[in-house]
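Problem 12. The chain below contains 94 residues. Write out its predicted structure in token notation.
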Amino acid sequence: MSIIKNNQSTFDIATQINGDVKSVVDFCIKNNLSLTNDIAAGTPYEDATTEHVNELVRDFFFNKDYELTTSEPRALAAIIGIGTMIIESDFDVT
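Solution.
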């Protein structure tokens, strides 16, 4: 049994373990998960048997020890704009 990592979706896991995103339905049925809901990190899951397997993609993830994730944590965007500018500091008046 494996554990869901931070920022992983059902599509990520199904693609990683079977090499084909079409296997996501079989994965969700096996683990009683929803295709669209977020999954909490640390949730255990079992690999599902499926006819949708792409060995080339599956072996790539396995051999490189890569883990597929939907998104990386987002950095806080710097607040910029006319309301944050100071005259003669970062806003030049000519």
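Discussion. The CA atoms of residues 78 and 84 lie 11 Å apart. Students who got a different answer should revisit the alignment rule from Section 12.3.
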